[in-house]
Amino acid sequence: MALGPWSSDVLKPLGYEFPMLVKRGYHIHYRPLGGAFLRRPVVDVENGYLLIPMERGVRLTTGIEFAERDAPPTPVQIARTKPIARKLFPIDMEVDGEPWMGSRPCFADSLPIIGRSPRHENLWLDFGHGHIGFTTGPISGRLLADMMTGHTPVIDPAPYEARRFLMV
Ligand SMILES: Cc1cc2nc3c(=O)[nH]c(=O)nc-3n(C[C@H](O)[C@H](O)[C@H](O)COP(=O)(O)OP(=O)(O)OC[C@H]3O[C@@H](n4cnc5c(N)ncnc54)[C@H](O)[C@@H]3O)c2cc1C
Question: The domain containing residue 92 runs over which residues?
Answer without folding.
Answer: 25-102
